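call fold(seq) -> tokens
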Amino acid sequence: MLHRYRLLLLLILYLVLVPKPLFAFWVWTPETNKWVNPKYAVKETPQEQLQYALEFYKDKEYKEAINEFRKLIKHYPRAREAPDAQYHVGLCLEEQGKIFESYKEYQEVIDKYPFSELSAAIVKKQYDIGVDLLENANNRSKFVDAFAGTNYNAIDVFKTVIKNAPYGELAAPSQYKIGLYLIEQGLYQEARDELEKVVNDYPESEWAKAAKYQIAVADSQRSTDAQYDQKVTQVAIKEFEEYVENFPDAQLTDKAKEQIHRLREKEAENSFLVAQFYEKQRQYKAAKIYYQTVVDDYRNSSWASKALVKIQELGGKETPEAEPGPKTKD
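ret:
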């Protein structure tokens, strides 16, 4: 008898001390003849589940919303509401500032539901994400990149846009921005290759015109370290001149003219440096030839007047003859 009283006392203490929410953690459902955890339960129809998830989304409870949208996707993968649920997972992540993660979730809609009416909206979303990533990459310092590393690549996003809609209106600007990104990273040859794709694949696009300008920019940057090799510089000048000739009224034409002047200045400087080299070697004839080239071919440059002064200073100096070697005994 005493044993029974002890058991009753323990049961009363358990009922009093145990928090009440735990009693609702599992619920017996006669329909399924099982215990069900309401936290992980799904609504009876995909429509109800979608509406339930949307309530969390509207209240900006994004974590809960994602959980409910994923329930729909898991339990009703073939429902008409499934693409919408997957799309809203991307929206929730984007609202939280997780833009690269949202890009990948948006892509799931296109991969799993290729005939969804959401495809066009998703391509636009992905393009905007690529632009955001590109701007963030350009604003970050190299120190930050080296310290923190990067878990995403704007190029991947733009290539996805092109893959999803190769003939859409965002394909050409995506390809163009890949080239811009590579220029910003100092990868000028790679940038040139990507920009050539804009010209070749989208020749009628307005972006093809801008790509031709950026190709010349990439070549002009490639010539920066080639102090005595003028071939790349000459190629860049020719490309800018062709741009000015073919698009005289284009928005970038004035900038192209400025680039031509800058590169011509660079050519004049290089010729002046070559002349100085020969002058130091006391090869005055060769030095005067290069100084004269600066005067004749780059008369509008800032180096022309300097070269003219040098020619006057050299005056009648001649390259000394080689001194005879030591005499040998017969």
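Residues 223 and 231 are 8 Å apart (CA to CA).
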